[in-house]
Amino acid sequence: MPEKQSKSLRSLLLTVLKVGVVVCALAYLKYSGKFDLKKLNFDFEIWHLLAAGFLLQLVANLISFVRYRLLLKGVGIDMNLKTVTHIGMIGVFFNTFMLGGLGGDVIKLAYVIRESGNRAGAVASVMVDRVLGLLGLLFLGGAALFLNWREVLATPSLHNLSLGVFGVLGGTSFGVLISMISLVKGRKWGAVAWGAGVLATAGFCLLALHDDPVALFASTEVEAADVLRGRALLVLAIVALLGFACMLVVPSCQPGRTLENFLRNRVPLGGKLMELVKAVLAYRSHFLIVVRSFALSAGLQALVLLSLFCFSQTIAGVNKPTLGQVFFAGPPTFVANALPMPGGGLGVGENAFEYLLGRCQSSGGKAVEGGALIFLMWRFWTIIMGLCGLPFYLWGKKAVSDAREAYTSE
User: Fold this and answer.
1) Cross-strand partners of 361
2) pLDDT per residue as tens digits for the range 226-244
3) 52 Cβ partners below 8 Å, 6+ apart?
């Protein structure tokens, strides 16, 4: 079979698989009774929460445009905020309504290349923008478990789930953060950041757990909370070791170093990893820009979670989640929803939020309800936000079309 036909077949099979995942996720929600639109009743007496949720979404998008402008400056591309906002709103529109491969990042990339002529810098800015957005979400998710520690202790159904969620979110965010610092500033600064993170975490644990018993294995005399504390410390130790390994290994992945050829030629997705390494290295002399962009990422993700909480309080007839519960369930849900699925992950995010919130308890001891409906409502308002990008697209349609043609012809 010719290589071109083989790639087309693989692409078709992958698309069918993605659509199948979405269909199965929606079917499960529908036939399990968790996705009954008849239950989607709004409490219009607190309409101000709807308005607050939408405004928080808007502000989060504006912060993402400020972050992207910072990252463009880091690779020598100076665009004013008005132009970046224009490009960003077009990207929001395409991310919301385009089901194919022509997403907002491609439009953003094509437009920046056309305006600046700096292809390498444009690619680096888009890749690092995505990574920092995800890193901010992962960091916030790990921190949220610390903030909800007492609630987790009091809810046995959250014990094992919390350890798994924190292990993935905390381990990934810490590993990526140490990797980026080690790449940009070298192993020495990576070691300093790793040591500071470990000492800060150890100090927090000492203050939080100094009077609490700790155990690794359950017995008739040992409470479940004691086991959770002990296993949480074990997970933290594994996260610290992962960060230390990243500090040692990742700098060797740079072009011309020991691991580059092995990763590029022998490891699945090794080529993608090397492209990411090159993108991060573009900011070697602009580390403060990366730090400020990461802070903006964490802030805007917190605003998105606050908007999700506002929307959750407007649905009538369900046991509404607390702010802490939304901050617990939201980050893993958004990570799952970020998977490249048709319809922006429709059904995948709803299932994840339903499952995670269902493990939490309301003040009356009942399971929190309506996770799928709450997330569907959040998705509805993101669609409204996407529509706000339509005038920007129509206004600059010719420029976008020219940029897309120039990008695809290269």
Assistant:
1) 367
2) 888 888 889 999 999 999 9
3) 307, 310
